Every structure is written in structure tokens, then in C-alpha cells.
Amino acid sequence: MSLSIRAAALTDLAELVAWNAAMAWETEHKQLDPATLERGIRGVFEQPRRGFYLIAECDGVAVGSLLVTYEWSDWRCGDFWWIQSVYVTPEARRGGVFRALYAAVEQRAAAAGAVGLRLYVETENQRAQATYADLGMQRCHYWMYEALLGAADGKSD
């Protein structure tokens, strides 16, 4: 099995839409609007300041992805890279796909001078939490709050 990581391209759009929809359903039982989701993913490709996607391939077949977005920290005078929209196909899970994606993000973030990596995880997803801890990530002492604005379609991301 040969695992490789590459930058996503617009040609990956259909898989990214499908995987984001599957992840939302699996983690939150949320049905996302496919048209809104496609526009949201395209928005990353159209404006790279928003972030980028990485794709994991096993023997040349795409088996997972994640999105990286940026958050400026005035306290540290640098960017935190947020790992979001993580998805690994069911048949590839527990095979090191996320670890490979994470290593690629960590390497790119260090090379870019980022000050750290962050992600959020469902409170009940013990398996993911254990994986993140095994990678050296620590649970933060912050709670997350949100307020959807008029432009939002009523569905959180």
C-alpha cells in the first residue's frame, strides 16, 4: 500500500462535496445542501487566502481529505492553522490516512512559519480524540460558541 498526500485541485470537487456531506451526516446527523456545499468548497479554490484542501491517495485512489484555514493570533503574532472537514473513506480508516494528512499539514505549517495547529472534535468522538492526543495535540480549555447571521442558511459548519 502506497500512501501519498497532494494538494487538492478543482477536479476533486465532486469527491470533496460527497465527503463533506458524508462527514456532516456521520458526525452531526446534518444533511447539508449540496449546492451550498459546492459553492463553499469552490470558494476555497477561488480565494486561496481562505485555505486549502489536501487529498490522501492510496495506490493512486483518493481515500481522504481535509481543509486547512487560517486564524491570525495577535497574542503570538502568527497564524494558527485550523484543520477542518476531515474525512477518510470507511475502507481506509485506521490505516494511517489521517496521520499522513496531519504530518503533511504539520510540515507545511512549520515551513510557512505558523505558530500552531488547531482543530475541533465532536465531544463524543473518543476515537478521534485519542488519535489527536497520540499525535501530540492537547485539549484546550476553551468552549466553542456560535451565532449564525442572516446570510447563513441555518446550518452550522
UniProtKB/TrEMBL annotation:
Signal peptide residues on this chain, from the entry's feature table: none
Pfam family, one: Acetyltransf_1
Sorted UniProt keywords: Acyltransferase, Transferase
InterPro entries: Acyl_CoA_acyltransferase, Bact_Acetyltransf, GNAT_dom
Domain N-acetyltransferase span(s) in chain numbering: 3-155
Organism listed in the record: Rhodanobacter panaciterrae
Gene3D superfamilies xref list: 3.40.630.30
Protein name: N-acetyltransferase domain-containing protein
Keyword Transferase: yes
